[in-house]
Amino acid sequence: MITLIAAAGENNELGKDNDLLWHLPNDFKRFKTLTTGHYIIMGRKTFESFSKPLPNRTHVIITRSKDYEAPDGCLIANNLEKGLEVCPKNETIYIIGGGEIYKQSINIADCIELTRVHEKFEADTFFPEIDTSLWKLTSSEFHDKDEKHKYSFTFETYHKAIK
Prior knowledge:
Pfam family, one: DHFR_1
Largest sheet: 8 strands, mixed
Protein name: Dihydrofolate reductase
Helix content: 10-25%
Low-confidence stretches: none
Family: Belongs to the dihydrofolate reductase family.
CATH architecture: 3-Layer(aba) Sandwich
EC number: 1.5.1.3
Distance between the termini: 18 Å
Radius of gyration: 15 Å
GO biological process, one term: one-carbon metabolic process
């Protein structure tokens, strides 16, 4: 199963200048819980936004650079299709960004785990529009802002609608 996992603002904003637009500890916890132990696919810029590889996950980095060198344990692929080929077939694979990788993968994904941040932001990277004729919202869990979360947000799970 291919799952896109992201946090996006009201206008599908993901980030700006290769950085997140918010700090939501509960979103980080959810991301860690869902992706730990799995293969995670990301673009090079997303990978480089981390200070180091995320623990207990196999990183698959998509880059067109022929001589890109990644840390030990990380896999390199020159396109999304090749990235998916190196992943196990009977496990959930998480696609974690960035915007271009999400656009390339949304039509082949089975599930979307989205944290909808209830605010509008200035951004240069966006999550693709979720076509509700193709995707069904199967779970929604609202969280109000509090002392640790500057913005309210909703954990949303979408599955491909069966036609």
